[in-house]
Design brief:
Elements: H1 6-17, H2 23-30, H3 58-101, E1 112-113, E2 131-139, E3 145-149, E4 157-162, E5 168-173, E6 182-187, E7 201-204, E8 209-217, H4 224-231, E9 235-238, H5 239-243, H6 254-258, H7 268-281, H8 289-295, H9 310-333, E10 337-338, E11 341-342, H10 356-366, E12 376-381, E13 396-400, E14 415-422, E15 437-439, E16 452-457, E17 470-472, E18 479-486, H11 490-494, E19 502-504
Helix pairs in contact: 1-3, 1-8, 3-7, 3-9, 3-10, 9-10
Length: 506
């Protein structure tokens, strides 16, 4: 995997912030060329790097510096935001564990599992109603941890391991490990040692603080109790205790972390200060050092202090605003659109992907957590095939030809689903049937030619036989659709698959 270079990261951030002008072209133009010397500088009348604005007024020079600091701050905010969001989610996890689990163990050694499917009461943005979730946070400085998974013979499951910058770095699940039980040792970046007895795989984390998302598929509401039984068999155990149950390992005290509440941050400077502390706990990868040196002058980086200098604070706040604008533009117009569907990049969630810093920040604000394409790909539609916003005042159909139905690796228990959300808040839209999605496991009715037509409309279909093909829509207001494809086939992973367009019927 190619490591991101300083110029790659720098150009990405500045270009997406709209602050670098032609930085991307300039980087390409000068790549591999010798630096200008007095013998090969530009001819008279051309731009000359040795004669830039020597005689500007002091106020003008300060304005130039302020503009440049704003650019640095924008780039730094995009880089640091996922670290802040990870610290924020860790706090929420520890708070909820302490609140709901009481004295039942240390939160750094257990999953907090959701026992019921998402519903109209769910407040997480764009909730998944295909799987039951669980979450855990680990501090690998305290101890390597063993993840113990039972036999899960008949369904999709996954444990996505995510670092302190919300980049997935490993998967344990039906796609990667199959359906048999196993013990997996999760170690920090600096751990060394042989694979202990009884351990199937050693998984090396990229940061000491990580979280794990657990997903287990349920076919319908009657299937939920079976998933809950599986959740009860999943374990997290310190390595020393796994090897000798008589050994007790002291895990971090959550009370110390809960004293520093990132939820109270209401200002981008507070966000950056929290991110700086969290990045010090979780050093970024070595290949980011050049970029971190670049943004360090404005005080953004692992362990750096942000002073109360008014000009510095002004630049940081202005940079955060520019970064917010860049993320908004990326959300609305950053991904290619085909047939009315936003098509995610095939290398999404990877550190070495072009534009990864801005994309990563935007995605974590929109919906915490992301999977690599081979695990799951999400297609989002805000408009029909003609570009008109999806609205409850109309009926729509989505017809897949036989060769357009999302391709799956069925031997790996791949599946797809189509979920409807309120466009204004990304939450489920209430309906009398409490039905929020159509999924591949439903008793869908196919055409004689193998095609599949889904009905997106407020009222049930006139033909009761098509009830499984119906996705209830609101009677008014804009909505959006999310097509999830878990463990998709080669066309999905390669980015060549495109869902068919939504057709407005009336």
């Amino acid at each position: 995997m190619r490591a991101p270079t300083r110029s790659h990261l720098l150009t990405t951030c500045l270009f997406l912030c709209g602050l670098a002008g032609s930085a991307a072209n300039a980087t390409a133009e000068f790549a591999g060329r010798e630096l200008a010397t007095r013998q090969n500088v530009a001819a008279p009348g051309q731009w000359n790097p040795l004669h830039l604005h020597k005689d500007v007024a002091a106020d003008t020079a300060r304005a130039y510096r302020r503009d440049f600091d704003t650019q640095l701050a924008a780039a730094g905010y995009l880089y640091a935001l996922p670290a802040y969001l990870h610290a924020k989610q860790r706090y929420e996890f520890l708070y909820n564990f302490t609140r709901y689990m009481g004295e039942r163990g240390n939160p750094f050694g257990q999953f907090l599992s959701v026992r019921t499917p998402a519903s109209i009461k769910t407040t997480d943005t764009m909730p998944n109603n295909d799987t039951l979730y669980g979450a855990a946070f680990l501090d690998l400085k305290a101890s390597p941890m063993v993840l113990s998974v039972p036999d899960i013979p008949d369904r999709y499951y996954s444990f996505t391991l995510i670092d302190a910058y919300f980049y997935p770095f490993a998967y344990v699940g039906s796609r990667t490990m199959g359906q048999k039980a196993g013990h997996y040792l999760i170690v920090g970046p600096d751990w060394n040692g042989p694979r202990p007895p009884g351990i199937r795989e050693v998984v090396r984390a990229t940061t000491p603080s990580i979280n794990i998302y657990q997903r287990i598929y349920f076919r319908n509401l009657d299937d939920v109790p079976a998933v809950v039984k599986l959740q009860d068999q999943i374990r997290l155990t310190p390595l020393a205790t796994f090897l000798d149950p008589a050994v007790r390992v002291a895990l971090p005290d959550p009370a110390a972390i809960l004293r520093d509440n990132p939820l109270l941050a209401r200002d981008p400077v507070q966000v950056l200060r929290i991110a700086n502390r969290y990045m010090a706990e979780n050093p970024p990868p070595r290949e980011d050092r050049g970029f971190l040196d670049y943004i360090a002058p404005v005080g953004v980086g692992p362990g750096l202090e942000i002073t109360d200098d008014p000009q510095r604070l002004e630049a940081l706040r202005a940079g955060a605003t520019a970064a917010d604008h860049a993320m908004t533009a990326l959300l609305l117009d950053g991904f290619p659109v085909r047939n009315g569907w936003q098509i995610p990049p095939v290398n999404i969630g990877r550190r070495d992907a072009p534009g990864s810093i801005a994309t990563q920040a935007m995605i974590q604000l929109r919906s915490i957590g992301i999977n690599h394409a081979e695990e799951a790909t999400y297609y989002t539609a805000y408009a029909d095939g003609a570009g008109r916003p999806l609205n409850g005042g109309h009926r729509y159909t989505l017809t897949f030809r036989a060769d357009e139905i999302p391709p799956l690796l069925k031997e790996k228990f791949g599946f797809w689903s189509l979920t409807l959300y309120d466009r204004t808040n990304g939450l489920f839209v209430d309906n009398p049937r409490h039905k929020y999605l159509v999924r591949s496991a439903d008793p869908l009715v196919f055409g004689r030619d193998g095609s599949l037509t889904l009905l997106i409309q407020p009222e049930p279909p006139a033909d009761p036989a098509l009830a499984a093909n119906w996705l209830p829509a609101p009677a008014a207001g804009d909505f959006m659709l999310n097509l999830r494809v878990f463990v998709g086939g080669p066309a999905v992973v390669a980015g060549s698959y495109t869902p068919p367009p939504l057709i407005r019927r009336e």
